[in-house]
Amino acid sequence: MIDLHTHSLFSDGELIPSELVSRAVAAGYRALAITDHGDESNVDFILPRLVKVCPKLAAAYRMPVLPGIELTHVPPGDIAALARQARAMGAAVVVVHGETIVEPVPPGTNAAALQADIDILAHPGLLTEEEAAAAAARRIFLEITTRGGHSYTNGHVLKLARAAGAPLLLNTDSHAPGDLMPRDRVMKIARGAGMSGDEIAGMWKNSEALVKRASA
After folding, report:
1. Which CATH superfamily is domain 2-215 in?
2. Residue-range domain boundaries for the chain
3. Calpha distance 118→164 (Å, rounded)
4. pLDDT digits (tens, 9 = 90+) for 11-62
5. Residues 63, 212: Cα–Cα separation, whole Å
6. Which of 70, 84, 132, 190 has CB 3.0 to 4.6 Å from 35, enough for a Cys bridge?
């Protein structure tokens, strides 16, 4: 399992980074990104700590552990600048919290995120055809998620991504120990969204490619 969207207690997760990684390893993970929720108020708190600890955990557990951020409920006009700031501070993976059916994310977030220097648009449940086309053009990954609520629209995201040729990957958006999932469980969720075997295989290749790019 490769999971590039998780949270520690630096935002609203339950675990310190070391326990999050330890539990991920026990669950059979091969790579992990810690992407705590951030906005202009706290990126300078989160990222220096993750940039410091993630390489040490990667060395200890002999797997990639990437420092990241999930820009969350940020006004759309501020997303691009904050993404640039996060990169400058060492974020290896930049995620934007997409427009979803279960939270009042500001309208226009998906479109603004897809014009910024980001890697993943997370659980973009209100995705449009135009936004899927933008993700395809800019090779920004659209997320299929295992997280309850956000996962209700996995099939919609898959349908639009498939039509546009936009790249997909699957993450857990873990906040608690029980959110981490073994690969076989994740495979069932992907199939439940309507993904074919070839699409699932391609999705794992996308995750591997992003880990390689982010680790460079």
Report:
1. Metal-dependent hydrolases (3.20.20.140)
2. 2-215
3. 19
4. 999 999 999 999 999 999 999 999 999 999 999 999 999 999 999 999 999 9
5. 12
6. 70
